[in-house]
């Protein structure tokens, strides 16, 4: 085992896959000589050269479209969005091309592309750089969507995403890049469609992903000390949702809380609750509680920014509200 930072885990995954497969390449703004805005591609340009670590102009629609075309010809591009908010400029290419071409070509083309980069509410990055786009992309047919949350799952998931023959949107949280964890020295991959049971419990199922996993863990540490026994599930796969793991947990606990950084209106939590109601409504002893970000642009002001997202104290209160008091 080696202790490693999350951005290093992502770089290792990219480097290892580029060594194994000459069709893997990286495309994006400042990914080459500069090494990426968050150093995920640091050192790769010197190792692989201009044609495999390609610096692009500031034109997300153009280089995303170029990467999709490259994928159609048999290459495996990794597109770094610098900030996922910027990929709204490539929404047409992601929706009408990446998501649809395998279907509209009658299976003649596969689109093995990974579109990755940082997102989420950072530390005073302003509204335009603090967006959570997972719900935007969730509505697009043909995409897989994953959100990493630890160095361990970041590396294993990215390797799987690069090898997958479908377009994968790979979300990283801007505040998790310096998260450190032990990961195996031997090669490993993780499935793109499976949730992780972070903690087994009996009282309530807490469903979360990305940075909120760590807020939930902090809240759960305090709850356990008070006698509560929550089950914590990191969704990881946002599309498709791993409803087998989710429903099995709710059938055991009979209660559920969704904790997300996504917007409340039409967010990941909204879709999750709809599917929970379809699959296990009769097993619920309480309506699903949804803890989501405020439906407003993220303020630049630090105090106001903090007020827009969910914190451990709110999670603790929600658990206590729906669980029997512990003595």
Automatic annotation (TrEMBL):
Gene Ontology MF terms in the entry: metal ion binding; pyruvate dehydrogenase (acetyl-transferring) activity
Claim: Nucleus is one of the keywords in the record: no
InterPro entries according to UniProt: THDP-binding, Transketo_C/PFOR_II, Transketolase-like_Pyr-bd, Transketolase_C
Reactions catalysed, as given in the entry: N(6)-[(R)-lipoyl]-L-lysyl-[protein] + pyruvate + H(+) = N(6)-[(R)-S(8)-acetyldihydrolipoyl]-L-lysyl-[protein] + CO2
Chain ranges of the Transketolase-like pyrimidine-binding domain: 4-179
Function of the protein: The pyruvate dehydrogenase complex catalyzes the overall conversion of pyruvate to acetyl-CoA and CO(2). It contains multiple copies of three enzymatic components: pyruvate dehydrogenase (E1), dihydrolipoamide acetyltransferase (E2) and lipoamide dehydrogenase (E3).
Name of the protein this chain belongs to: Pyruvate dehydrogenase E1 component subunit beta
């Amino acid at each position: 085992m080696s202790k490693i930072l999350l951005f290093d885990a992502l770089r290792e995954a990219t480097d290892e896959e580029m060594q194994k497969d000459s069709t893997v390449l990286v495309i994006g703004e400042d990914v080459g000589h500069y090494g990426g805005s968050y150093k995920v591609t640091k050192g790769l340009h010197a190792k692989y050269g201009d044609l495999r670590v390609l610096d692009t102009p500031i034109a997300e629609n153009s280089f995303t479209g170029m990467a999709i075309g490259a994928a159609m010809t048999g290459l495996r591009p990794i597109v770094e969005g610098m900030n996922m908010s910027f990929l709204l400029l490539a929404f047409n290419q992601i929706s009408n091309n990446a998501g649809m071409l395998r279907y509209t070509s009658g299976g003649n083309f596969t689109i093995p592309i990974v579109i990755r980069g940082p997102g989420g509410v950072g530390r005073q990055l302003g509204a335009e750089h603090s967006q959570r786009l997972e719900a935007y992309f969730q509505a697009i047919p043909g995409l897989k969507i994953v959100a990493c949350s630890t160095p361990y799952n970041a590396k294993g998931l990215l390797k799987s995403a690069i090898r997958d023959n479908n377009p994968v949107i790979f979300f990283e949280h801007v505040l998790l890049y310096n998260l450190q964890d032990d990961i195996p020295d031997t090669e490993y991959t993780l499935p793109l469609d499976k949730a992780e049971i972070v903690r087994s419990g009996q009282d309530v199922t807490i469903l979360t992903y990305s940075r909120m996993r760590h807020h939930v863990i902090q809240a759960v540490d305090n709850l356990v000390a008070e006698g509560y026994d929550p089950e914590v599930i990191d969704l990881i796969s946002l599309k498709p949702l791993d409803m087998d793991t989710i429903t099995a947990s709710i059938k055991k606990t009979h209660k559920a809380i969704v904790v997300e950084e996504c917007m409340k209106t039409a967010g990941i939590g909204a879709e999750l609750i709809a599917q929970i109601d379809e699959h296990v409504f009769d097993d619920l002893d309480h309506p699903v509680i949804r803890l989501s970000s405020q439906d407003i642009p993220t303020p630049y002001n630090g105090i106001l920014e903090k007020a827009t997202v969910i914190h451990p104290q709110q999670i603790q209160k929600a658990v206590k509200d729906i669980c029997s008091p512990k003595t």
